[in-house]
Amino acid sequence: MKKATLLFVFAIALFINAYAQLSESFEGTFPPANWYKSTNWSQSTSQAFDGTKSARCMYNGTNDTLITPTLNLASGNYYLNFYWKELNLNNTDSVVVSFSTDNGQIWYQLGVTGGGSDNIWTAESFFVSNPSSPTCKIMWNYLKTGSQTTTFYLDKVEVSTSTNTKSDQASLIEVYPNPISNNSITINNLPNEKTSIQIVNVLGKTIYESVFVDSKSKITIPFEFESGIYFINVKTPNKQFSKKLIQL
């Protein structure tokens, strides 16, 4: 009996290690315990993807950072998953997401997010390859690069061994290739329910729109537009997904 109990506890520990290296939805005090924030990061009580609150950066002329507590990540591959949105579609500012294995002494860029989302929560996932360090940290750095002013919202931050949770099926939707170079795009992992697909340009003009009543898992649609930046919005009765597209 004692051996079985120990095996059960060990199995639970493995499950937690796989799915709860970090999980934060900013519902409590802000910043959360052991997080670091610069002046212009605060808590929003009006915008949230998960729950009733989120983190936000209200830009006022400086580069602003939000940094996680120290994470003890064993060897293996991980994903940083989170949701973000901005209220201004035409915003060209960016948020650089970086990773450190030495408590923030040296930062390595994981990717860049932001750049306008027309008030739609967007799923983001960055791959972290074999950190194998007890002193890992993750940083979001808001960089002012354009003339528009907006607020960046961040919610449901997770570090795990898988991409965004399967319960949020919209976060699993894939759009490829991106950048686009072959006059078409493929949308994969669509839910089996009524789904609307809309593509808009940076001015907010709709250039493609279609509704699929019985959505297939994968569809290919034409994409023969001028070079530039576009946004694809996928909506189901319960979820929304938005992604920036680049036409070469």
Task: Note down, in words, how this protein is organized.
The protein has 248 residues and is mainly beta. The chain has one helix and 19 strands. The protein has one helix at residues 2-19, and strands at 22-24, 36-37, 41-44, 54-58, 64-67, 71-73, 77-86, 94-100, 108-113, 122-129, 133-143, 151-160, 174-176, 184-188, 195-201, 206-212, 218-222, 228-235, 240-247. Strands 1, 3, 4, 7, 10 and 12 form a six-stranded antiparallel beta sheet that branches. A hairpin with a 4-residue loop joins strand 15 and strand 16 (206-212). The termini are far apart.
- Please give the oligomerization state of what you see: single chain
Radius of gyration from the CA trace?
A: 19 Å
Q: What's the total count of β strands?
A: 19
**Sheet bearing the most strands, described?**
6 strands, antiparallel
Number of helical elements: 1
Strand content: over 45%
* Shape type: globular
Question: Helix/strand/pairing class, anyone?
Answer: mainly beta
Helicity, as a percent range? under 10%
* Poorly predicted ranges: 2-19
Mean pLDDT: 80
From the N-terminal CA to the C-terminal CA, the straight-line distance is: 63 Å
Strand and helix order: HEEEEEEEEEEEEEEEEEEE
Helix-strand layout with pairing:
Layout: H1 2-19, E1 22-24, E2 36-37, E3 41-44, E4 54-58, E5 64-67, E6 71-73, E7 77-86, E8 94-100, E9 108-113, E10 122-129, E11 133-143, E12 151-160, E13 174-176, E14 184-188, E15 195-201, E16 206-212, E17 218-222, E18 228-235, E19 240-247
Antiparallel strand pairs: 1-12, 2-5, 3-4, 4-12, 5-11, 6-11, 7-10, 7-12, 8-9, 8-11, 13-14, 14-17, 15-16, 15-18, 18-19
